Amino acid sequence: MERREFISMTSLSTAAAAALLADEAQGQAPPPAPRPLSVTLLGTGTPSPSLARQSSGYLVEVGRDLIVWDHGPGAHHRLLQSGHRSVDVTHAFFTHLHYDHCMDYGRLVLQRWDQGADRVADLKVYGPPPIARMTEQLFGADGIYGPDIRARMEHKSSQDQFEARGGTLPRRRPAPAVTEIHAGSVVKGEGWTLTVGHAQHVQPYLECLAFRIDTPEGSICYTGDSGPHDAIVELAKGCDILIHMNHYFSGTEPSPAYRAACGNHRDNAVIARRAGAKTLVLTHLLGQIDQPSVREQIVHEIQTAYDGKVIWGEDLMKLTLAGSKVSTIETRQG
How far is CA 100 from CA 23, 244, 253, in A? Predict the structure, then answer.
């Protein structure tokens, strides 16, 4: 195996590398095979450091797209453990810009740019303001990573590696295609529609959103970080999977404002029941409740008010939908 081929193959995932080698041989790469609708929980924790639970991140596989919802610290590591690479991701959506939901954004963009060697399309990025300004401040010529990017574009050693990966000089800058979105925005993809809703969290300091994706195979709603709110009920109406922040044990909130921003397990049961969601996935779990007997008590109390399926989320858990039902639940060791 030649050095150029070796670097190319080790820089990309198997699927991406195969497609790109076919591109070189035939002039165009065949599109990847469509995937069944699934969501992998990349990070089910909080800002608190944890080896078991990374911060917020979700990977939606739908058709020929791989969509990231939030990308907090540790989520990118979980993306690799899930069997995917940055070059496989087509879209990134952010519910809000708390660091535990966006810190790995820089890693996603830079590794995708570096490993992709100008042979993958620019990442499509959606999020509330100031995601456009944040992107420029990270990757612009005068941004935080500006000197790094310039060195990788202009130093001969970096150019050598870029060409070995299949790139053709001059090298382009990373240029995520950023669209700022708000509650009420609708984004359409190939075989899917994403609707943006309002999440009640830390306004007015951050604009906070929730997402719902609808496909012929089913629907998934992700509330981001949200306390109880009618807007969540409306967005989640009849969804097949509702992924909801379950931050703390009901009755232990320090203030009404805390409950309004974060909700609790009994609030979540009411939201899921009112929405008619078929499956409720609990995530964003504090260590204080992620304990034997406490978990069981929370699930039991939710099920007294909500008659759907309740799932205690874990990092790298993958749920696949078929016929608007959860057909498989896969887990793997983090």
Answer: 37, 16, 20
